[in-house]
Specification:
single chain; mainly beta; four-stranded antiparallel β-sheet; 1 helix; 4 strands; 5% helix; extended
């Protein structure tokens, strides 16, 4: 998601952060509108296990953001969950 925001996929690097109930999987009807200020790739590659086997790359991105406002979540678009690591919502 951070790379999509940095590459200009979303206008003004805006996104919505919300809560999801772990037991029912329901998403809150209110979210916080956030703006990405900066992101840093801190991926780790080349790490090895004790016997010397190489571990796969650990992808890690650190994002600095600021809250812009509060939004009402109107709907969530259906999509292939394996394709993206985030949901797309219509907000007001």
């Amino acid at each position: 998601m951070a790379t999509d925001l940095m590459n200009g996929k979303w206008e003004n690097s805006l996104f919505c952060a919300s809560l999801r109930a772990r037991d029912t999987n329901h998403i809150a009807s209110v979210g916080t509108l956030m703006q990405l200020l900066d992101a840093e790739d801190r991926s780790i590659s080349g790490a090895k296990t004790w016997p010397g086997d190489i571990l796969p790359t650990l992808n890690r991105v650190v994002a600095n953001c600021r809250a812009v406002g509060v939004v009402e979540i109107l709907s969530i678009e259906e999509h292939d969950y394996e394709e993206d690591d985030y949901l797309i919502a219509q907000v007001k």
